[in-house]
């Protein structure tokens, strides 16, 4: 039986790399798609070195609609089909709304929000063409349920991704396409390190103190690993989640309840 095929954007490192490795271990052929060709190659090589695991690397800037459609076409040419699209790529910066640089704001919205929009559009177009149904999973965030100071653009992008996912879930259900999201809290990745480094500078404190302050807010008293998050994507991608759509799952160790 041919392997199911998954595209994971932003899978050259961090949460995306953990998702790629988790799903490869579960039998998916993986398209490791990232703007950084070197890290994408590295993750694909790591996967291919495991017994019976398959991956290929692809370069994509998710902010570019043509790039995202080209990615889907290339993956279908290489692997014959598409079953799962994970819109994981995302960027963040820390600044007050008043001080936010307009170019940085536009780039963030282009990558996080429009990148997810194009991903849904390209994946759903392919699923409809195949007539197979499919699964789309989007990276939202704890920042999609509660805004934080110094994360205005980021929070706006993540709230919007949740709304977009709900609309897509309703529109695509007749084609047996489910659309869900994951809402991590604090995950130990380069993106989170960047947030804590900048926040520490702005608050005139150390990185260690800033990080500890954040971890103190987590009921489980530890930040998540990328592998913690990948377990939830594994569930959402599996047949166990066939009857779940339009949902967003908090993975924050009990920081917020709603
Ligand atoms: N780390 C955390 O604490 C949290 C992360 N998230 C979300 O999870 C997702 C993954 O985050 P991390 O792994 O922490 O980030 P990361 O910065 O460690 O990794 C992101 C990956 O995306 C790639 N990327 C960036 N822009 C891209 C573009 N335009 N096109 C294609 N690839 C691009 C980067 O090259 C990198 O490999 C993001 O959407 C982020 O907003 C959500 C909540 C918390
Ligand atoms: C990076 C991120 O999504 C949070 C919640 O800080």
Automatic annotation (TrEMBL):
Q: What is its EC number?
A: 1.1.1.304
What PROSITE patterns has UniProt attached to this entry?
ADH_SHORT (PS00061)
The UniProt catalytic activity note for this protein reads:
(S)-acetoin + NAD(+) = diacetyl + NADH + H(+)
Write the record's keywords in alphabetical order, separated by commas: NAD, Oxidoreductase
GO BP term (any one):
fatty acid biosynthetic process
Q: Which GO terms describe its molecular function?
A: diacetyl reductase ((S)-acetoin forming) (NAD+) activity; quinone binding
Establish whether keyword Repeat is in the entry: no
Q: Which NCBIfam families match?
A: 23BDH, PRK07231.1
Q: What does this protein do?
A: Catalyzes the irreversible reduction of 2,3-butanediol to (S)-acetoin in the presence of NADH.
Q: What is this protein called?
A: diacetyl reductase [(S)-acetoin forming]
